[in-house]
Amino acid sequence: MAQTNKKETPLTWDVFTTGLWKENPVFVMMLGLCPVLAVTNTVENSLGMGAATLFVLVCSNALVSALRNFIPKQVRITTYIVIIATFVTLVDYIIQAISLDLYNKLGAFIQLIVVNCLILGRAEAYASKNSFGKSVISATGMGLGFALALVMLGSVRELLGSGQLLGIRIFSENFEPWIVMILPPGGFIVLGCWLLLINYVHQRKTESLINQDAAASHCSVPQQH
Amino acid sequence: MSQQAETPKQPSSSSLILTLAVVAMLSGLLVVLIYEFTKPIIAENQRIATEKAIFKVLPAAESRLTFQLQDGKLIAADDKSGGELLYAGYDSNKQLVGLALNAAAQGYQDTVKLLYGYTPENGCITGFDVLKSTETPGFGTQISSNAEFLANFKCLEAKVKQTLDGLANVIKTVRNGTKQHAWEIDAISGSTITSNAVGRMLNQSGQRLHPVIAKHLPMLQQAAEQPPTQ
To answer: Of B95, B97, B118, B87, whose CA–CA distance to B225 is shortest?
Structure first.
């Protein structure tokens, strides 16, 4: 009936940083791409969606983890969805209370957090198998990693699409905005460029590590004889 | 029989139902708590947004009254009243400066909703504020930023027929650069669908509401001095 904790790893700094960058939900795991492409046309929208997703991810994973020993596996997905939908409804009301303007800009994408595969994925793959503390810390890392990716996309799109950052004009009036950047294709283009850059840097790093290892082993070979 | 012995013990249906019921109750409790907490804040936010839009389309107004359209009649109401609401703006001398009216029509992506200012004395539509729009950024969104398009609304003619059963002239959007009459709207080149939607919604709203306003004009003019009872 209940899910048992098998071989629980200790709580380390890695639990937090893994989601933040090493296994970033957007740039590495490619999860929840629908809001990533749809609402990142400005930094403000990206921050709003990032904060909303972080809230839902942390709260739902905390509750899933707290209840993990009481939820029969036959109804676990249904239960997770009910829990996630609850927190999405809460965040929907909270954003309306904070700013109607932001609520109108984010549109239906707030309600669509329910079906963000990142949240259900983390509930099923991590929170249902790990302790409360670890689940909360991992979810915080993942949520911040997701928000970071949204802001990285949003800042490039807003800068090129309207010459502004957070509504503050950066380029002069002579700058001709790249309208495509604030349209959905701009999301794909910027995401592709970020992935290209991140993978290129990662590849260069791996190659240099391999070269260093090879050089070290080459130097050490004569000493063995 | 041996196969049955190997399968793990299934939890009873009642325990599954109980789990879901407990989670659903917990969920309901949380939603109700937050709903009750945020309800007055959201209502206040909506009131501020409406207020801002009204005073934007009626810049000369210093105070306002809300009216509800019911069976072709205008009755005093408040912002929380359901149905179709009209907002009358008054200056510091309690003189009617105009009305803020709602209009909506299908745009390129979804329904576009506007609040527009109407001055019954000269029959002019004098500006609008976009309340809801999901039009394409850089194209349909130009209706609120394109200076040439906004110039149409310095005084867009929306006079009522003498028989008080509609507008004297149909408000319509025409191709960019072909405007000839005061009741025509010069479209934005490249945003024709949204420009047409603006013309259509102003015409529909005007045909329906402006005659009612004309019939109730004396009441509206005096309402600020003696607010009518509901």
So the answer is: B95
Phi then psi for residue A100, to 5 deg, are -65, -30
Cβ–Cβ gap B23/A74 under 8 Å:
no
In this complex, the residue of B20, B23, B38 whose CB is nearest that of residue A93 is B38
DSSP string, B93-118: T--EEEEEEEEEEE-SSSEEEEEEEE
Whether B7 has a pLDDT exceeding 50, the answer reads: yes
Who wins on pLDDT, A146 or B224?
A146
**Position B179 in a domain:** yes
- State pTM to two decimals: 0.79
Burial B30-52 (b: 16+ CB within 10 A, else e): bbeebeeebeeebeebeeeebee
For residues A65, A68, A70, A74, the Cα torsion angle rounded to the nearest 10 degrees is: 140
Q: Across the interface, do B19 and A104 touch by the CB < 8 Å criterion? A: no
Q: Within a domain: residue B218?
A: yes
pLDDT value at residue A8: 64
Distance in Å, alpha carbon of A41 to nearest chain B alpha carbon: 10
pLDDT tens sequence across A51-109? 999 999 999 999 999 999 999 989 999 999 999 999 999 999 999 999 988 888 887 78
Greatest pairwise CA separation for chain A in angstroms: 75
pLDDT above 70 covers what percent of chain B? Answer: 93
Residue A172 token pair: 């002069």
Cα gap B63→B227, rounded to integer Å: 12
For residue B156, pLDDT over 50 is answered with yes
With respect to residue B214, please indicate whether it lies within any of the assigned structural domains: yes
Domain extent for B114: 42-223
Percent of chain A as helix, strand, coil, to the nearest 5 = 75, 0, 25
Per the structure, how many domains does chain B have?
1
B159 in helix, strand or coil?
coil
Say whether B34 and A179 touch across the interface (CB within 8 A). Answer: no
- Collect all residues of chain A within an 8 Å Cβ-Cβ radius of residue B20: 75, 78-79, 82
Residue B70 has pLDDT above 80, yes or no: yes
Q: Do A90 and B27 touch (CB under 8 A)?
A: no
Q: What are phi and psi of B167, to 5 degrees?
A: -85, 150
Q: How far is CA A10 from the centre of its chain?
A: 23
Domain assignment of residue B113, yes or no: yes
